[in-house]
Amino acid sequence: MTIPTGCLGGSCGACEIEVNGRLVRACVATVPRSPEGSLTVGLAMDPYW
């Protein structure tokens, strides 16, 4: 998966993605480990992708 980038510092918002109903800036966000040990990304269902 490719996340679009802009400033790479979290200030422009080009990399914003939705995680658990919240918008996060992917270039500066950390992703906590899932209790199940996997991450599911529904890009096919996302109208912006």
Task: Provide a descriptive summary of the structure in words.
- There is one protein chain.
- The chain is mostly beta strands and 49 residues long.
- It has a domain at 1-29: Ubiquitin-like (UB roll), CATH 3.10.20.30.
- Helix content is 0%, strand content 16%.
- The protein has no helices and two strands.
- It has strands spanning 16-19, 22-25.
- A two-stranded antiparallel ribbon has the order 1-2.
- Strand 1 (16-19) and strand 2 form a beta hairpin.
- The protein is globular, with a radius of gyration of 12 Å.
- The N and C termini lie close together (11 Å).
- The model has no long low-confidence stretch (mean pLDDT 75).
Provide keyphrases for this structure.
mainly beta, single chain, two-stranded antiparallel sheet, 2 strands, Ubiquitin-like (UB roll), 0% helix, 49 residues
Task: Write the SSE topology.
Layout: E1 16-19, E2 22-25
Antiparallel strand pairs: 1-2
Low-confidence stretches: none
Report the principal-axis shape. Answer: globular
CATH architecture of the domain at 1-29: Roll
Q: Helix/strand-derived class?
A: mainly beta
Residue share in β-strands: 15-25%
State mean pLDDT (0 to 100 scale): 75
Cα-to-Cα separation, first versus last residue: 11 Å
Count of runs of 4 or more consecutive helical residues? 0
- Oligomer, anyone? single chain
Main β sheet profile: 2 strands, antiparallel
